[in-house]
Amino acid sequence: MSIRPPPGIGSFKKNYMKHLLSVEKLSREEMEDIWSSSAVFKKERTRRTGGPLAGQTWALMFSKSSTRTRVSFEVGIRELGGQVMFLSATDIQLGRGEPIKDTARVLGRMVHGAVIRTFAQSDVEDFAKFANIPTINALTDDEHPCQILADIFTFQEMRGPIQGKVVTFVGDGACNVPASWIFAAAKLDFELRIAAPRAYQPSAALLARAGGRIICTEDLKAAATGSDLLYTDVWVSMGKEAESIERLRELTGYQINEPLVKLAKPDALIMHCLPAYRGKEITESVFEANSMTIFDQAENRLHVQKAILDWVVR
Ligand code: CP
Ligand code: NVA
Q: Are residues 156 and 293 in the same domain?
C-alpha cells in the first residue's frame, strides 16, 4: 500500500518558491496581479468555497503584537480552505534563543507556509531560505509590505490609479511603513513626500536603493499642500518603546490635524495604518471624520492578504 503525503507535505517543495518579503522585491506587474485578485476575493467573499490552501496548514509566527494582521491572516487562511496555527515567539523555543534557521528547518518539514512578524528583515529572509516554504512578511523593522499593498488597493478603489498622484506621509518617516511606501512610489510612479524632523527622515542609502520621486522635508505645510493622500503611522513603533519620551517630544507637530487637511486637495483621502494614537500623529476629529476610509483600509487587509496567499502558492 502506498501512503501518499497530504497535499503539499514532502513532495510539495517546488524548485522555485514564491515569497512576499518586501515591496522592494516586488515588481509593478506582481502588485497589479495581487490587486486584481484582491478585488475578486473582496467581491466574492461570501460565495467562495474550497480554495487554494485546501489541505494545507500555515503557521503565523509573531514576535510583536498585532490585531489587524493576525486576525486578517487567520481569517484569510481559513477562508482559503487552510488550517492555521498561531505561534507567539515567546511561547516557542525561538524566544529562548533557538536560531531562526533551525526553527525554519523544523517548520519547513511540518507546515505549508508561514506568515512572520518580527524585528530583523534578515530573519524573514533567512526563514524563507531555510524553511523553503512560501513565507510572508507580516511586518519587520524594515518593511510592512502587506500594509502598503492594502493601502494602495484602498486608494485605487476610491480614487483610481495612484500613478501621477501626490502622497504625503506625516510623522516618523524612518520606520517600516514609510519605507514600503518609498519602494512603492518608484515602481508605481507617484510622488511621495515625507514630512518629518531630520532625524526621522529615511536614510540616504534607502532613498538611493528605491529611486523614484521622494521628497523629504521638515516643512509639513509645504508637504501637505495639494496632496491627494495624507497618511500617518504611530510615532513610537514596536521595538522603539525605550525612546518614547524623546520621540513624543521630537515628533510633536508632525500631526494630521484640521489646518493640515485644508492644505491638501479638497477630495484628499486621509489614511492611517492603525493603531492610532489620538492627539499624537492624528487628531480625534480628523480621525473620526475619515473613519470610513480608515476602516475600509483596515478591512482591505483581509482581501489583499487572501490575494497574497493565493499568489504565493500559485
Ligand atoms: N496595521 C497593522 O499592521 O496593525 P496590527 O499591528 O494590529 O497588525
Ligand atoms: N510602524 C508601526 C506599524 C504598526 C502597524 C510599528 O512598527 O509598530
A: yes
Confirm whether 278 is a catalytic residue.
no
* Active-site residue flag, 126: no
This prediction has a pTM of 0.95
66 lines ligand 1 (CB under 6 A): yes
Show the domain range for 212. Answer: 147-298
Q: CB within 8 A of 41, min separation 6: which ones?
A: 48, 303, 306, 307, 310
Residues 182 and 286 in one domain: yes
Q: Is residue 53 part of a domain?
A: yes
CATH code for the domain in which residue 291 is found: 3.40.50.1370
Please report how many Cα atoms fall inside a 13 Å half-sphere around the Cα of residue 296, on the Cβ side. 15
Q: pLDDT tens, 38-61?
A: 999 999 987 666 699 999 999 999
